[in-house]
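Q: Lipoprotein, please. Structure only.
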Amino acid sequence: MYRLIPFLFVILVSCQSSQTKPDEKSSTKKSLQSTKVALKYCETLAPPQKEVDTLFFSELQNFNPASYYLQVKDTSDFLRKIECIYSAQEYGDTLSIYPKNWDYGKILSFEQHKIYGSDQKFFMLFFEFFGGSSSSYPPQILCILNKSGKILLYQDHCDSLKYFSVFKNKNPFLLTAYVTGFGNGGHHLYMYHKGKIRDALTDDIDIPNTIDMHEDDNIYDPYFMNIDIRDLNKDGYNDLRFSSVLKMICTKKIPDRKIHFDFIFCPSEQIFRPIKTYPREYYHPDCE
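A: Structure for Lipoprotein:
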């Protein structure tokens, strides 16, 4: 029985030209080397003792994930192969990983899409797994790969995702919601910038929770803040306003109040920054 680890789909697809460029040759060589490392690792993790296991390791050496795009027939087998290749790509020869305990996975969506900052299509993989611990809730993972199969993003605790247009005649951002097992969380607004997938909301800034359904001192109503697009500072660029109603949960009745967080778009940095420091969570002395 195999213990599955966090897995990602590696897609080795060229969507534009049949000619192989020098950097693509290098990438292909590296992928083959990674596969060999993955094969060695998998044999160490779960030595093949049955004929079916031996066949699996043999198939892994010639596995081409691109041929499975939108045509995955045996999800379990597909994920078993992908987990090994991802480990090699992510960790190289060291493979210092910590396997997660889950039983099997299910693909929720698997598509190609453009996002803000680039005209190339990326592979968007969104899947859930079953049998994990409560700390992994929600048991859903998003990963984004380029056409060469390089993993550009891996996000766990991904509750939902949608393509979110902010600027006219521009590709949409990828808006995702992340939630912890307690019910707190926030949003990511992914874009492509200087060869990487970047969150246009944070940039290492500690932003407030934009999701709160954890009944400690307060909750939001709705739990997931509404997001409005408007030019808040009148500079010709759209900005973002997150809004909801704050409900305090106390023995003493405290009136509900509307709250909002404003994020101004900075065109030179290509990022949305909060106009001030907002409290990450709200407290009230009567709720202590």
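A: Brief note, in case it's useful. The helical segments are 22-45, 51-60, 75-91.
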